[in-house]
Write a structure and sequence with these properties.
Shape: globular
Distance between the termini: 44 Å
Order of helices and strands: HHHHHHHHH
Largest sheet: none
Structural class: mainly alpha
Strand content: under 5%
Helix content: over 70%
């Protein structure tokens, strides 16, 4: 047994509450689904889940705890993450109307959004700190499993719940955005819309850096 069932109800309740709080990941997935359709939103959700699995493995191995103890490493992560998101926003802003992807040609776009979702979450130090600070709260001393094994199980459960929630979000937002994908005027500005989203995410991330340093 790798999860203490006495703590499981509290853990599940906490995870659901956290998933309902709007954040950068929700913003990226929802905007991707609205702008480019459900398929792209699904890939963005899978990218977010991939980064979550990587962070879970790091937390279970204790690597993320070591990084979290280094203020310089956290500041570097914030700066890299903000710079990466700014670049994505700039690339979208520079794209002209002719660069707006066709709905029937979204395979490449889906892969791009998958990679962006992976890196935007991995380069978010708040995600790193979340796994370092949150998962250990539910590690039990009553189990034979090690703390690393328990954190791995808790992280996997969190990622499964997060993926299901994001896919539900994609289904809801993607359905609302489907008529927009057929609107030529909307397609002219959809890259600009995504550019604003990435700029917002960058400001979100860099603002946390300023607050930490002040």
């Amino acid at each position: 047994m790798m999860i203490d069932f006495a703590l499981l109800p509290l853990y599940l309740t906490t995870v659901v509450a956290l998933l309902l709080i709007p954040g950068p990941d929700m913003l990226l997935i929802a905007s991707s689904s609205l702008s480019y359709g459900r398929k792209v939103g699904v890939y963005a959700s899978l990218g977010n889940a991939t980064s979550g699995l990587l962070l879970t493995l790091l937390a279970a191995m204790g690597v993320s705890a070591l990084i979290a103890m280094s203020p310089m490493a956290l500041q570097l992560l914030r700066l890299l993450g903000g710079a990466y998101l700014l670049k994505m926003g700039w690339d979208c802003m520079r794209a002209g109307p002719m660069d707006a992807p066709e709905v029937a040609q979204d395979n490449n776009l889906a892969k791009i959004l998958y990679r962006r979702a992976v890196f935007s979450n991995l380069l978010n130090p708040k995600a790193l700190l979340f796994f370092v600070l949150f998962l250990p709260q539910f590690v039990s001393t009553n189990l034979a499993a090690s703390s690393g094994e328990q954190m791995l199980a808790l992280g996997l459960l969190l990622n499964v719940m997060g993926l299901l929630f994001n896919l539900l979000l994609v289904g809801m937002v993607g359905s609302l955005g489907k008529p927009l994908l057929k609107n030529e005027k909307f397609r002219t500005y959809q890259n600009k819309f995504m550019g604003l989203i990435f700029f917002t995410l960058a400001i979100w991330l860099l603002a946390s850096q300023v607050q930490t340093m002040s």
